[in-house]
Amino acid sequence: MNIMYKLALKLIGLFVFISIVACSRYIHVIADRSWDTCTTTKKGLDSSCSYFITYTFNSDGTFTESHKSRDLSKIQSNYRNFWKLKDDILTITLTGENEEIIKSTDHKTKWLDSSTFYIIEKNAVSGVELYIYFQSVD
């Protein structure tokens, strides 16, 4: 085998390896996007699940929420909303006026595709598992 042929084979092998690694480390992006949410007690989306809250995750680490059935603009809030997504763990943090942490929760995200993911949360009162689906509206 000549040297150019061997070099070509090595380059092809390197390209295939890099492609496999890149595909296995797909990074999900939620920043600068709005997400409609649907909460249900059963796994899987169906037509009975209605979207009524929209979250917008900003690139500065803050997020806002809007309810489709209520106008929250007149309600004064004394806390700020923060988010962070690292290694498919979504951390939601609420802080008070003095930046003290009121509540912080970690949620493992499970992606269905690039525009849909869900988290599982346990209802604090009833103990029932809730599936919260996020669908990109962008």
Question: Which outline best applies?
Answer: globular
Q: What structural class should be given to the helix and strand makeup?
A: alpha+beta
Radius of gyration: 21 Å
Q: What is the percent of helical residues?
A: 10-25%
- Low-confidence runs of at least 5 consecutive residues: 5-11, 13-25
The secondary-structure element order is HEEEEEEEEE
Number of helices: 1
Largest sheet: 6 strands, antiparallel
> Beta-strand percentage?
35-45%
Strand order of the largest sheet: 3-2-1-9-8-7
User: How many distinct beta strands?
Assistant: 9
In angstroms, what separates the terminal alpha carbons? Answer: 53 Å
Whole-number average pLDDT?
Answer: 79
Describe the secondary-structure layout:
Blueprint: H1 3-24, E1 33-40, E2 53-57, E3 63-67, E4 80-86, E5 89-95, E6 101-108, E7 110-113, E8 116-122, E9 129-136
Antiparallel strand pairs: 1-2, 1-9, 2-3, 4-5, 5-6, 7-8, 8-9
